[in-house]
Specification:
It is built from 16 helices and 15 strands. With 440 residues, the protein is of the alpha/beta class. It has two domains: 135 residues, Alpha-Beta Complex (Aspartate Aminotransferase, domain 1), CATH 3.90.1150.10; 275 residues, Type I PLP-dependent aspartate aminotransferase-like (Major domain) (Aspartate Aminotransferase, domain 2, 3-Layer(aba) Sandwich). A seven-stranded mixed β-sheet has the order 4-10-9-8-7-5-6, sandwiched between helices. Strands 1-2-3-13 form a four-stranded mixed β-sheet. The protein has a four-stranded antiparallel β-sheet with strand order 11-12-15-14, with helices on one face. A hairpin with a 2-residue loop joins strand 1 and strand 2. Helix 5 packs across helix 12 and helix 14 packs parallel to helix 16. The protein starts with 18 loop residues before the first helix and ends with a helix. The chain binds 3-[O-phosphonopyridoxyl]--amino-benzoic acid. The site of 3-[O-phosphonopyridoxyl]--amino-benzoic acid (PXG) has 18 residues, from helix 2, helix 5 and strand 14.
Length: 440
């Protein structure tokens, strides 16, 4: 069967997809290069979402493909426990160099979900190593997305992801309020002025449970999956101050925000806030091979290692931690980011994207526009009794017009590869503007 013939669709149970609907009217991709996907129909579709927020250097990068191909010929696989391969150390060093000061110990995973669960475990192991084994409580945030492991959905705040498992989530988890508020912040460009005080809710949670029971707070600096929630000015700073005051670790889930999405190595760098751990995935390998990691402050790493008399210090890891194909892809990807100065490019383009996005104000159904770095969220008013339907229709119509957007609920998220041009940004928002006028 050639690649362009349509396969039998019945066997694949698709993730986070309306399977029945999709299979009745499938959209199938067979190729990708630069800013474009190719469909089975031969249509070129502009990728306004960098895949799923992950193909930051654009598709089909030869250097990455070559590195992966060479790697699979020379060392296809190396066990990750008790023995190492040279590029795993090089990749860890290359990642560490992009992290905020001190967060230079790297634990490899294969996905963002695994990075989150790893980070939560490290936080708990750290407190135990310090003789504070009672610090096991974890604090997440409403509307947070931290992947789909049991740890991730427990600290996460997306009720659709939690409902089926509500009686089996991790115990001793609390949630901060989310920061979304249309009355106060609708149509803000960049970080809203209103909302820093919402971080003070952490003091109430601490007062309730006592700091001595709390291991860590985990938040996305910019919440992507839930619909582009930009942190209010001062909000993350306050979370940092409160966690530091009470000896609680702060984990930034930067699976989306790291590697240039906001125009910097990390959101931490952009905002000048240093958490204790950072979770990474997606752009780390340009999504050419599944990969993830946790960047850990060296003091946390050293504390856990020093607490162990001998033998394995941390009973955790994956068959494919630092898989040779992943480390090859990571090294090649980070080299491209550096050589092409793609994070600087994203930073320089972000005012252009901001302007283009905010041009949609006044278009039918648009009740908010949010942006930060090379990300924009356009929130549509939901149809009565049919939340998500309007954005779904916009998605379908944009796709038919050759632009791939992303939606969650009734918020459209735009997050193109960092190689996007101004003309392509115009095409994305012109298409959206046109499509919005055709939707009830
Ligand atoms: N943390 C964050 C902040 C994420 O955005 C994960 C963890 C989990 O990563 P993995 O690699 O296990 O999927 C994510 C994933 C979307 C979308 O369209 C976002 C994600 C995944 C799929 C779709 O918003 N984020």
């Amino acid at each position: 069967m050639t690649n362009t013939q349509k396969p039998d669709l019945s066997h694949l149970w698709m993730p986070f997809t309306a399977n029945k609907q999709f299979k009745a009217d499938p959209r199938l991709l067979v190729g990708a290069k630069g800013m474009y996907y190719t469909t089975t129909e031969g249509q070129q579709v502009l990728d306004a979402t960098a895949g799923l927020w992950c193909v930051n250097a654009g598709h089909g990068r030869e250097e990455i493909s070559t590195a992966i191909a060479n790697q699979t010929r020379t060392l296809d696989y190396a066990p990750s426990f008790q023995i190492g391969h040279t590029d795993s150390f090089r990749a860890a060093q290359a990642i560490a160099q992009l992290m905020p000061n001190g967060l230079d110990r790297i634990f490899f995973t294969n996905s963002g979900s695994e990075a989150v669960d790893t980070a939560l475990k490290i936080a708990i192991a750290y407190h135990r190593a310090r003789g504070e084994g009672q610090r096991t409580r974890l604090i997440g945030r409403e509307r947070g997305y931290h992947g789909v492991g049991f740890g991730g959905i427990s600290v996460g705040g997306i009720s659709n992801n939690r409902r089926n498992f509500s009686s089996m989530l991790l115990p001793h988890v609390d949630h901060l309020p989310h920061t979304h508020n249309l009355e106060q912040n609708a149509f803000t460009r960049g970080q809203p002025e209103w909302g820093a005080h919402l971080a003070d809710e952490l003091e109430n949670i601490i007062a309730l449970h006592d700091a001595s029971t709390i291991a860590a707070v985990i938040v996305e600096p910019m919440a992507g999956s839930t619909g582009v929630l930009v942190p209010p000015k001062g909000y993350l700073e306050r979370l940092r101050a409160i966690t530091a005051k009470h000896g609680i670790l702060l984990i930034f889930d930067e699976v989306i925000t790291a590697f240039g999405r906001l125009g910097y190595n990390t959101a931490s760098e952009m905002l000048g806030i240093t958490p204790d751990l950072i979770t990474l995935a997606k752009g780390i390998s340009n999504a050419a091979v599944p990969a993830g990691a946790v960047a850990v402050h060296r003091d946390i790493h050293d504390t856990i290692l020093d607490a162990s008399a001998n033998g394995i210090e941390f009973f955790h890891g994956y068959t494919y931690s630092a898989h040779p194909l992943a480390t090859a892809a990571i090294l090649a990807t980070l080299e491209i980011y550096e050589r092409e100065q793609l994070f600087e490019r994203a930073r320089a383009l972000s005012p252009y994207l901001e302007n283009a996005a905010h041009q949609l104000k006044g278009r039918p159904h648009v009740i908010d526009i949010r942006n930060i770095g090379l990300v924009a969220g356009i929130e549509l008013e939901s149809r009565p009794q049919a939340p998500g339907a309007r954005a779904a229709e916009a998605f379908q119509k944009c796709f038919d017009k050759g632009v791939l957007i992303r939606y969650t609920g009734d918020t459209i998220a735009i997050s193109p590869p960092l190689i996007v041009t101004e003309e392509q940004i115009d095409q994305i928002f012109d298409t959206l503007a046109e499509v919005l006028t055709t939707i009830d």
